[in-house]
């Protein structure tokens, strides 16, 4: 799967992943009104609105980017109907040949971790048959429980040719409360980065990169520079671009000399672009066109930054 992701990044010249993190306040009125007219102001109505909103964005951006990253919490809040919208979104992205990063941030041990890995990346056995559950290509994983929590995901990745992104240094302001703590003379995030490198050592494919990647926030570029050296074969998923303050110039250290090794996420900066002053000219009816332009602008911003590296 890392070979596919790398190939699509090269083909699109866009190391970008679009975060499909829908919120009701992002969805234009013409979409919610139609959904509510059919299903009422219900969880099913909300699920339908989310699905139609996502579909419009996917149609507008699928030829520009290699990957999408739906955040499952944005769907879970609407219960089963939200998860139905999540599954519809995954299936549609697969039809468009997009790489799917399920932003699930799971972290547990033993049979529970195995069940999470199976449900999102692997196949479950039902009698004499096996079935994929959500069937994302990658998943995000919380490493707080150590190898016991990560190994079941690594095992499924090897079986299914899929991948994970392990949280190493996250983009939120309070991440340093734990992640920056000094342990034996070094910050904790460096120790986690070393484990990511270790977990992925025998998971390198023809692309030259491991299927075990890391999440490192764009808001911490100097830390990203250190972690890039610690994890030379790991792709870095970089959140925090755009709405959280990260910009192209902050990203150069996340990439290797080959111009690869990182993929940058933008969520509301793209999916809710029409609500920002820079793209308000598109209006709510053309929200998807605004999203497309935001992707084009982000691609150019990153390209200029890397050109000057």
Can you say what the CATH homologous superfamily is? Aldolase class I
**N-to-C CA distance:** 28 Å
> How many domain units?
1
Low-confidence stretches: none
How would you sum up the global shape? Answer: globular
Question: What is the number of E strands?
Answer: 12
| Annotated CATH architecture | Alpha-Beta Barrel
Query: What Rg do the Cα atoms give?
Result: 19 Å
Q: Note the main sheet.
A: 8 strands, parallel, barrel
Question: Could you characterize what this model shows?
Answer:
The chain has helices at 2-12, 29-39, 43-61, 73-76, 79-95, 110-121, 147-160, 176-179, 188-199, 221-230, 268-271, 287-307, and strands at residues 16-18, 67-68, 99-106, 123-126, 129-132, 138-141, 163-169, 182-183, 186-187, 210-216, 234-238, 262-266. With 309 residues, the chain is an alpha/beta fold. The chain has a single domain (2-299), classed as TIM Barrel (Alpha-Beta Barrel). Helix 2 packs across helix 3 (43-61). It starts with a helix and ends with a helix. The mean pLDDT is 94.
């Amino acid at each position: 799967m890392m070979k596919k992701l790398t190939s699509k990044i090269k083909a699109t010249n866009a190391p970008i992943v679009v975060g499909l993190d829908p919120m009701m306040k992002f969805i234009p009125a013409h979409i919610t009104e139609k959904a509510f007219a059919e299903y009422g102001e219900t969880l099913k109505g909300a699920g339908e609105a989310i699905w139609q909103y996502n579909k419009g964005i996917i149609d507008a951006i699928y030829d520009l980017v290699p990957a999408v990253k739906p955040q499952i919490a944005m769907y879970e809040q609407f219960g089963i109907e939200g998860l139905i919208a999540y599954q519809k979104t995954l299936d549609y992205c697969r039809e468009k040949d997009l790489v799917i990063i399920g932003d699930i941030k799971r972290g547990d041990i033993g049979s529970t971790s195995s069940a999470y890995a199976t449900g999102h990346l692997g196949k479950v056995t039902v009698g004499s048959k096996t079935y994929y559950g959500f069937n994302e290509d990658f998943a995000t994983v919380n490493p707080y429980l150590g190898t016991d929590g990560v190994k079941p995901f690594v095992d499924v990745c090897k079986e299914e040719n899929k991948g994970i992104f392990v949280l190493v240094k996250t983009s939120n302001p309070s991440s340093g409360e734990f992640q920056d703590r000094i342990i034996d003379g070094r910050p904790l995030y460096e120790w986690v980065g070393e484990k990511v490198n270790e977990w992925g050592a025998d998971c390198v494919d023809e692309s030259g990169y491991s299927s075990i990647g890391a999440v490192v926030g764009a808001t911490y570029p100097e830390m990203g520079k250190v972690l890039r050296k610690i994890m030379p074969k790991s792709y870095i998923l970089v959140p925090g671009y755009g709405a959280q303050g990260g910009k192209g110039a902050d990203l150069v250290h996340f990439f290797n000399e080959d111009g690869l090794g990182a993929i940058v996420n933008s969520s509301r900066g793209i999916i809710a672009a029409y609500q920002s002053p820079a793209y308000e000219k598109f209006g709510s009816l053309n929200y998807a066109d605004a999203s497309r332009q935001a992707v084009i602008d982000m691609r150019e911003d990153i390209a200029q930054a890397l050109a000057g590296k």
